[in-house]
Amino acid sequence: MKILVIGGTRFFGIHLVNSLLARGHNVTIATRGNAKDVFGDKVERIIIERNDPSNLKETIGRDYYDVVYDNIAYSSNDIKGLLNSLKCGRYIMTSSASVYTNQHLQTSESEFDPTSYPLKWCFREDFPYNEAKRQAESALFQIYPQFESVAVRLPYVIGQDDYTKRLYFYVEQIIKGNPINLDNLNEQIGFIDSADAGDFLAWMADQKFAGAINGNSNGTISLKEVIDYVELKTNKKAIYSAEGLEGPYNGQKSFDLDVRLANKLGYSFTELNSWIYELLDKCIIMMEEDI
């Protein structure tokens, strides 16, 4: 298939492109041209300006794609600007668990319905991230029903290539002996590995499903379990203090995403415990090399 990927030059976008190539697809990546990619002559490239509708018509709008992936749709205006120019059979948007207002263990897709949510045309900066993502999904499913569309909702995506370094934060502070302020040590939190996220997205290209679908590694972990492991491996103790650096996952209550729909369609996610401790080991090595 002829596939366009918008946002495929870093993090799980790289894994998405690699998974698509491994499946034999013809892949074009669309970027602003500011960042180099790692794909060499395996992909084609086009330069776009996401916020310029006329540019999108002149670039993306010139060709038909069997599938378009959009990893950088953050608002309803992002959806409108792109889909008004797009010619494709299938559109797959990377969405987020943040669309769920009441997150809990085994949060299901039905708990946010973008087809009935009040739509507001907005830019990313007009609302907090979670509301802007809700508006993006709402615009997609309410205004553009002619597309066979999918919103893939993911929890926290982590990996050695995670540029946010949220998990790395905990390792770093323990090894450096910096006080940390945490308010959710024992909450059980869901994650997905960046490679698994990319593979799941790529798998969706060949499916007939349209609508919202969750992705999530099987299982959860608490920050207490993370910290206990790092303490054991480094022989250092976390220092807790209300005056310390605030943890990036502060405020997050116990939650993960129900993936029975994806399982029913035939996709199997990795077990969280099969990769997260190896990832923590790599974070420890990276941190110790930096000291």
Automatic annotation (TrEMBL):
It is an enzyme of class 5 (isomerase). The keyword Cell inner membrane does not apply. Keywords: Carbohydrate metabolism, Galactose metabolism, Isomerase, NAD. Pfam families: Epimerase (PF01370). Pathway: Carbohydrate metabolism; galactose metabolism. Residues 3-212 form the NAD-dependent epimerase/dehydratase domain. It catalyses: UDP-alpha-D-glucose = UDP-alpha-D-galactose. The keyword Repeat does not apply. Its cofactor is NAD(+). Signal peptide: none annotated. Its EC number is 5.1.3.2. InterPro entries: Epimerase_deHydtase (IPR001509), NAD(P)-bd_dom_sf (IPR036291). Belongs to the NAD(P)-dependent epimerase/dehydratase family. This is UDP-glucose 4-epimerase.
